[in-house]
Structures are given as C-alpha cells and as structure tokens.
Amino acid sequence: MRVLEIRPEYGPGGAATVELPGAVYRIFGISGADASDCEGVVFLSQIHGSGILFDPAMWAEGDGMIIPEGGRCPGIRTADCLPVFLASAGFSAGFHAGWRGLAAGIAGEMLRLYPEPPEIVVLGNCICTDCYTVGDDVERSVARSSGYHGNPPGRLDLRNSAISQMEAAGLPEETIVYSFPECTMCREDLFHSFRRDGTAGRNLQWLCLER
Ligand SMILES: [Zn+2]
User: Fold this and answer.
1) Distance 191 CA to ligand 1 centre (A)
2) Consecutive sets of 10 residues in the chain, 211 residues long: mean pLDDT of each?
3) CA of 140 to the centre of ligand 1 (A)
4) What pLDDT is stored for residue 4 in this prediction?
5) Number of domains in the chain
6) What's the gap in Å between 136 CA and the centre of ligand 1?
7) What is the CATH number of the domain that holds 10?
8) Given this model, what pLDDT does residue 144 score?
9) Domain span at residue 15?
10) 37 CA distance to ligand 1 centroid (A)?
11) Cα 190 to middle of ligand 1, angstroms
C-alpha cells in the first residue's frame, strides 16, 4: 500500500485546498467555512456508528455515504476523529472513523459496499497517535476489528487501524492513499479538538470529484 503524506500550506485557521488526481480536497479548521464554500457538499448527522448511506439527503443519520458522480460531494465533520474519503470514476464516498466506528467495522463496511475499486483514498487530519490516549479495552476492541496491532501502549493509531481494516476488506494494492498528518489536538492554531477544548467546534473536510 502506497501512503503519501501531504502537508499543504494551511491558511489562517486551517483552511487548505489540495488538488489530487481526479479530485479536489478541501479542509476548513477553526476558520470555518461559509455557505458558498459548502455548496454541493453533503453532511450527515453522525452518530459514531457504522451505517453507510447511498446518495443520502443532507443531515441523514449515518457515519458514511457513497455518492454517484454528478455534482454532490461527501463531507465529514470531526473534532479529533478521522475523516476518510474514497474516489473513482463513477463515485465518491466519505466516512467518519473514530474508535467506536472502527470497532463497529465502518472502514471494512465501506470497502464492501463501494461499487468499484477506489482509485484514491484520503485520510484527513485527525488526532495523532501520541495525543490519542485510550483505555486498554478501547485499544483491544479496535485492534480486534481492524487487525492492526501496532498501537503503542495506551494509545490508538486511527490511521493505521483504518488502513488495516480497509485492506482486510479488499482495498486494492494499487490504490494510492493520501494522508494529511497534522494533528487536530497538537495544532491549536489550525484545528478544533474536542479532547483539547471540550467544545462543539468541528473541522470540515470534503472531497469533490473533478472530471
Ligand atoms: Zn497530536
């Protein structure tokens, strides 16, 4: 699996736009996004589960979505959890992966439901492994469902857990994984972090196909 780390030039408050093959990735941290930025982006009412919806209405309840090519884009709101996106010629998809979602198998479920081999996968900004302290029970339940057993003691690596669960569900070896490694908790200047601040602020990240 090829994982390419991307560190874009972030604007004030964690805004960035990154051109990827066939798609544009947008990030809004503490600066927020206004309505014109969000045009055509679908957000869900996320509930830390593993439900994936096909072509959902705005604010439908679930943690993942698959959208046919045609203008709308999947958007994910997080404070420390990992947003993951997939794209190919005919579809784009996004899901919200925290420990609960990964323990419930959301990354594997997405790979099983996604209608064609994904050309790219994007792992957005989330809390880093050093910052993400968890109890042994949490680490064990995610390790069991993801197959990733490299977590340091008392810590959880959301990125490698998600990749491992997708690989086990058939993520093609030739898919390129783009990873945005800035930590939501370390980078107070860029991102909201629930663990750091305990507030309701959310970072917005989305992926739009560009053909
Ligand atoms: Zn960190």
Assistant:
1) 11
2) 94 95 96 91 95 97 97 95 97 97 98 97 98 98 98 98 98 96 97 94 96 67
3) 21
4) 97
5) 1
6) 19
7) 3.60.140.10
8) 98
9) 2-79+87-209
10) 27
11) 12
Report the C-alpha gap between 87 and 26 in whole angstroms.
14
Q: Return the sign of the alpha-carbon dihedral for residues 81, 177, 73, 180.
A: positive
What is the spatial distance between Cα 167 and Cα 43, in angstroms, rounded to a whole number?
Answer: 26
Residues 6+ apart with CB under 8 A from 117: 88, 172, 175
Q: What secondary structure letter does DSSP report for 56?
A: P
Q: Taking a C-beta distance cutoff of 8 angstroms, is the pair 167, 195 a contact?
A: no
CA of 90 to the centre of ligand 1 (A): 35
pLDDT of residue 10: 96
Provide the whole-model pTM: 0.97
Distance CA 176, CA 189 (A): 29
Contact 94, 207 (CB under 8 A): yes
